[in-house]
Amino acid sequence: MIRKQDLGFRLGTGAFALVLILIVVAIGFELTRQSMLSIQKFGLAFWRTDTWDPVAEEFGALPFIWGTLYSSVLALALATPVALGIAVFISELCPDWLKQPLVFLTELLAAIPSIVYGLWGIFVMVPAVRVLETSLPPTLRQLPVFSGPPLGVGMLSAALILAIMVIPFTSSVAREVLKAVPGAQREGAYALGATRFEAIRAALFYARTGIIGAIMLGFGRALGETMAVTMVIGNNPKVSLSLFAPQYTMAAVIANEFTEAADQLYLNALIEIGLVLFIITLVVNGLSRLLIWSMARSGSRSRAAAAAAPAEVTAA
Amino acid sequence: MSRTSRRKLLSAIFVGFCALAVVIALVPLSFILFFVLKEGVQSLNLDFFRHMPKPVGEPGGGMANAIVGTLILTGLGSLMAVPIGIMSGIYMSEYAGSRMASTVRFAADTLNGVPSIVIGVFAYGIAVLPFKQFSAIAGGFALGIMMIPIIARTTEELLLLVPSTMREGALALGATRARAVFTVVLPAALPGIITGVVLALARIAGETAPLLFTSFNNHYFTTRLNQPISSLTVQVFTYAISPYADWHRQAWAGALVLVAIVLVCSLLARLATRRLEGMQAR
After folding, report:
1. Residue B29 and residue A111: Cβ atoms within 8 Å?
2. I want to staple A162 with a disulfide (CB 3.0 to 4.6 A). Which of A75, A97, B17, B41 is the partner?
3. φ, ψ at A2 (rounded to 5°)
């Protein structure tokens, strides 16, 4: 029997919980409302054309989509092996006394503010990248991926800094996912005479859905990362395959041009970019959460859902 | 080479790679900390905390207004996020099995993944555009939205850690659900929840993107909530992309303060959680 007071408690706390859901809905609604002008005027052409000239009122968002996807995919390619290596090392290989310090250090990487990454990127990493780029042999410079002047700022710097920033997210979730793999999986493998690598491979295979979820979570982070990327990517709306070329991302163009957007159409175009960024990250994060949860449910049952889907990588 | 030794070699290479991965991640971390410390210490002094920014060309000056601004903004953010976050955390843990709870959990995780710049655009539409005025309130609103999911999920997880016998004991004594939660379960988890809130604060204090066009920036000292206000992060950004060496030094000093905030909070949280885990083990 439900007591009256208990019902009140449920409704009271539920009202606050409802706020959380409403915020997500409101973001989608508000961004759509504020970008109507641009949506109606350009339609789908907005995402197919690559001329971004606010003065001439020509708005084509292709360079930003390209820059966002290209930098995130590159970052993911760099970060994923490292992140998984860290996860395996911490959860399977390292001695117990080393675990906590390593977890603390890798998660410190997630706690450092984006702006500090950006500052470090501008003054330390970009000059180093420039040296790296100039020292590339001329024969390789013929390739389209290395074309253009070696400026330091550009796609390569953005991908590198994103990779560093994404590592802790992916590795922390991958670690939790590996924790949810039953010990019997590894013991079984060892009992059959497997080497360490083969036993861990079996565990990784068992955890594959969760691992993919962890990688996608990192992808979601990379897509939306703003400050550090803005400061090192060069902010040039050009679609290019070159790693050396200054390019632009969706988040960066909003950060840079929002306060300058004098007329309504310009502002609406920027908000539409925000809307699409919102939708993309929503889908990517949603999928990754579902994968991680389904993994946790099929793994150990005791509180695994909460364990395998940490609310946030905290430095705790 | 025999098959067995090949397998052993492969295994050794794999173990070596994993160890290398840890080193690869720790290199940038130590580089960042080293440079922030080295460059920051050179320009960080008492004036940094007491003085206002100086115009270009005049050396010295500080970020007193930005530090106060960051305090005000994070304060406003927590004013909004702590009640909503903790109450929805309670809901998620108390009614863990319900469909509503999993929807809320999903919403929290989704909100957590929304890029901070998008939160900024949203806050602009809600709290800047209607009033045609950048303001501290708008900035605090943006930060608050970012804090809510972190606090909600931390609260939920910590409440679930409290042994169910405690709740059952209270209920068996005839307490209402609300009374059991607020006088027994919540106090037991409170140290952890406070830790979570502190961590959320540390993270939010380092946010730049949501503030760029909500609280904007202000060269002057202000505590008025309906005016644009300066913040450490936006100030560091402004200085970092400027062409002046003096300003670059100030940016490094600001970065050092930001990193120190994060580091101190993380260490405190680390100690607190260790104590909590100790209690759990008993």
Report:
1. no
2. A75
3. -90, 125
**Residue ranges of A 258-287 with Cβ closer than 8 A to chain B:** 258-259, 270-271, 274, 277-278, 281-282, 284-286
Q: What is the pTM of this model?
A: 0.91
Interchain contact A90–B (C-beta under 8 A): yes
> What are the distances in angstroms from CA A172 to CA A106, A222, A286, B13, B265?
8, 15, 18, 23, 19
Give phi and psi for A59, each to the nearest 5. -125, 105
CATH number of the B61-281 domain: 1.10.3720.10
CB A303 within 8 A of CB A179: no
The closest CB to that of B212, out of A124, A258, A289, belongs to A258
- Site of tokens 């960042």: B32
Give the C-alpha distances (Å, rounded to integers) separating A42 from A236, B143, B178. Answer: 22, 32, 53
Quote the pLDDT of residue A298.
Answer: 66
Q: Where are the domains of chain B?
A: 61-281
Tokens representing B72 are: 């005000």
Written as one letter, the residue type at B226 is N
* Rounded Cα gap, residues A215 and A174, in angstroms: 8
Q: Each residue of B75-85: pLDDT tens digit?
A: 999 999 999 99
Cβ <8 Å between A109 and B28: yes
Give the residue-averaged pLDDT of B104-125.
Answer: 94
What does the DSSP assignment read for A142-177?
TSGGG-S---SSSHHHHHHHHHHHHHHHHHHHHHHH
B194 touches chain A (CB under 8 A): no
DSSP letter, residue A59: E
State how many domains chain A has: 1
CB contact (8 A) between residue A82 and residue B24:
yes
Asked if A281 lies within 8 A of B113 by C-beta distance, the reply is: yes
The ipTM (two decimal places) reads: 0.92
Say if CB B177 and CB B94 are below 8 A apart.
Answer: yes
Q: Which of B178, B252, B270 sits opposite A104 (nearest CB)?
A: B270
Q: Which domain holds residue A115?
A: 35-308
Largest CA distance in chain A: 80
- Matching residue, tokens 């310009």: A266
**Across chain B, what does the average pLDDT equal?**
89
Query: CB atoms < 10 A from the CB of A166, how many?
Result: 28
Indicate whether A218 belongs to any domain: yes
* Residues 6 or more apart in contact with residue A196 via CB below 8 angstroms: A93, B11, B14, B15
Phi, psi of A161 (to 5 degrees): -70, -35
| Residue of chain B whose Cα is closest to the Cα of A101 | B270
Q: Which two tokens stand for residue B192?
A: 């952890």
Q: Alpha carbon of A309 to those of A112, A284, A297, B109: distances in Å?
A: 21, 15, 11, 9
Q: How confident is the model at residue A216 (pLDDT cuts 50, 70, 90)?
A: very high
* Distance, CA of B29 to CA of A109 (rounded, Å): 6
State which of A304-308, B53-57, B189-193, B265-269 shows the largest mean pLDDT.
B189-193
Answer whether A220 touches B (CB < 8 Å). yes
Of A85, A224, A312, the CB nearest to B150: A312
